[in-house]
Write a structure and sequence with these properties.
161 residues; mainly alpha; two-stranded antiparallel ribbon; 5 helices; globular
Amino acid sequence: MSSGGFSRRNREGLLDAVSVGFFLMLIGLLFVINTNLVDEITNFFKDIVTVNVSTWNVMLPKPADVGAHMVVYRAAEQFSLVWGVFLAAMLVIRFATESRIRKKAENIGDIVFWFGAAYMVQTWLIDKAKWFEFWAWIIMVLGISLITRAIVLAVARAIKK
């Protein structure tokens, strides 16, 4: 047994349940705040076309008018920011409840990704309406997130030795 009379496994299960619950509440809240979000998402998908992006005839999906979907982009940014803040709070709880380093490292990597995603939505979709540049940056943010996770694990292992 450990802190609070719960085993580590039970604590992790409780944190996972809280995360799922908060995720569902956040999704619902986004639809409440953005009353026309369903229509905007529908319009976004109706606007998708395929475009040739290389001399090798590679076709990728893209909205015909990238700048016409600001409501969808703002909802994505809102989600990313709030989810990032929630994950930061969960990280504090993970340290307080002595979660495994693997879970803490995963949490830190996720925080990096979601705050990075929020920044990229604002910069590349909302401010500049650059679709493929946005996705290139998201891939880079994902890489940074994974590297961050690996660094945290490496540092923790080095400290443990």
